[in-house]
Automatic annotation (TrEMBL):
GO molecular function: glyoxylate reductase (NADPH) activity; hydroxypyruvate reductase [NAD(P)H] activity; NAD binding
Listed Pfam families: 2-Hacid_dh, 2-Hacid_dh_C
Protein's organism: Paenibacillus sophorae
UniProt cross-references to PANTHER family, sorted A to Z: 2-HYDROXYACID DEHYDROGENASE-RELATED (PTHR10996), GLYOXYLATE_HYDROXYPYRUVATE REDUCTASE B (PTHR10996:SF283)
Superkingdom, natural source: Bacteria
Family: Belongs to the D-isomer specific 2-hydroxyacid dehydrogenase family.
Protein name: D-glycerate dehydrogenase
Amino acid sequence: MAKPVVFIPSKIPEEEKVLRFLEAFAEVDYRDEEEMLDEDVFYDGLSRASGLMIYSRNKIRGHVLDRAPLLKAVSNIAVGYDNLDLNELTRRGILATNTPDVLTETTADLAFSLVLASGRRIAEADAFVKSGGWDGWLPSLMLGKDVHGATLGIIGYGRIGSAIARRARGFNMDILYNNLVREEKDEQELGIRFVPVEELLQNSDYVLVQVPLTPQTEKMISEKQFGLMKKDAYFINASRGGVVDEAALIRALQEKQIAGAGLDVFEHEPIDKTHPFLSMPNVVTLPHIGSATWQTRAKMAMKAAENMAAILQGRRPVNLVNPDVWTVKDGTVQ
């Protein structure tokens, strides 16, 4: 019997280890490419695939699935999966997985670095020096905002939110949070306080949003929310760009309703080269690098491969995100 084909259209770290693992049960069609494949090349590979391993930049919608008659599994190399049309995948009986846990600490490092970079004006100061603007020490040169002892408000308190809170405790920050469920263990161990979103916005020096992009969270941070924030507060987003109304954030920055922002994600990626954020010195802009370390990306790729192996070998994957598809009869996935 021929082995199922697993299509990987993008370069992955530690590829030899991951490919060797996959080749034990599958034929692997691997493209060692940094850039997105040409559409025709992608569809050609997809047409023969039983399994697809992708990063979140690949958008899997109905018209894409129409070109994948053999597809049984999509293994996302990411914790978020808003790039997948779960309803369509479920309707077609295609299993989908993600890679949580392994990127938690790395993403929390990045998110907290945005707090530091924003408040202490790191990117702005670096550009100032490199442009030749630094002619000497001045009493008010690049004055920023303290991070230690400040109040951090975290909207969305999952694994990454908890990891960010642990870092903030090291800076003796007062931590407010809002989430769908109370995290009483962290309340006791870290001293965090659950408050309504309005109270969090009004009292935080740094407001950090860490929620997945869903129909419920889309543009949840908008004009009203920015209007409640302190004028010397900073807004931080390392989750998904779509959870923020960017037009409202631009207005809040231009009208000095808030002091600045630190952003790793944007509504449309890559960000347009004429976007207002790029000319704002009080906005730190990063190219969606929350999980971008060699170690973490390698772990993510292996976890995605393990999810793929489970599905194609008839086992329930640990990180299944559309469990309604999973039914087993006589030991095989139906």
